[in-house]
Write a structure and sequence with these properties.
The chain is α+β, with helices and mostly antiparallel strands. The chain has a single domain, classed as Bit1. It is 35% helix and 25% strand. The chain has four helices and seven strands. It is globular, with a radius of gyration of 16 Å. InterPro entries: DUF2000, Pep_tRNA_hydro_II_dom_sf.
Length: 136
Amino acid sequence: MAHRTKIAVVVREDLAGWQRLNVTAFLASGITAAHPELMGEDYVDADGREYLPLLGLPVLVHAASADELARSHARAVARDMPTAIYSEGMFKTGNDTDNRGVVAERSTDDLDLVGFAVHGPRNAVDKVCKGLALHP
């Protein structure tokens, strides 16, 4: 079944492996929080054990240089698309309150992003991510 919308996560390619995974997980949670209707149904195994639902559509993860990430984020902002963001300073905090403080200290163009996620119509997300490679 073809989905009318798409989720894309763009992560800076020079991060350590654990950082790329951590950023991707946090950003996917932001999209999920904003769009709970994207969640599927609970999973149940053959023994009747229930498992939590997952997103009901694929998440495409792209790798980008810092410049490519900034350019793609600017495209999302110009299209007024809601985005989840992760700033480099957030690696140094230990809680959500301090994370929001790190973001609040900088203007949009000076966020020092290491990743962002966007959900929207397929063609709009494709335009935001134009030229980016999928994460290897």
